[in-house]
Amino acid sequence: MSDPFSVMVEDERIQLAAFVEEYRTLIAGVLDGLTEEQARRRLVPSATTLLGLVRHAAFLESVWFGTAVSGASRAELGIPDTVEESFLPGDDETVDSVRRHYLQVCERSRAAVVGLGPDDTVSGRGYPITVRWLHLQVLRELAHHCGHADILREQVLAAG
């Protein structure tokens, strides 16, 4: 949409998608301009890093849009069994590969809900979930992790 305010008068489906898209863009952008070392730098007691946050965002998209909509298992989607593992990039993963993977997962998430309205339900996780709730859950998680990423990125850049 060329007018950024036009979403304010669109239907709920478009509004929810627009908010999720905004946070997807922000998460993908946290790695911009970072070296591989900066992206992996741990500045908090947990294993959280900027690279790990983007990796985890791909995981959460897969859990909610992959398993909940399609019913695919974590193994079928190629994602870790635990949340903790989702934050741990492999030695072969890079800023570019993690970002590219995240963007591919986002595309898969978008495709999963094409044609579904906010009141439609999915039950791939074994219980009914409205598409509205699914978008709100992903939005909540992405916004939460964007906050973490803002602080970590500020720390990483300040440290040089």
From TrEMBL:
It comes from the Bacteria. Pfam families: MST. InterPro entries: DinB/YfiT-like, MST-like. This is DinB family protein. The lineage of its organism: Bacteria, Bacillati, Actinomycetota, Actinomycetes, Pseudonocardiales.
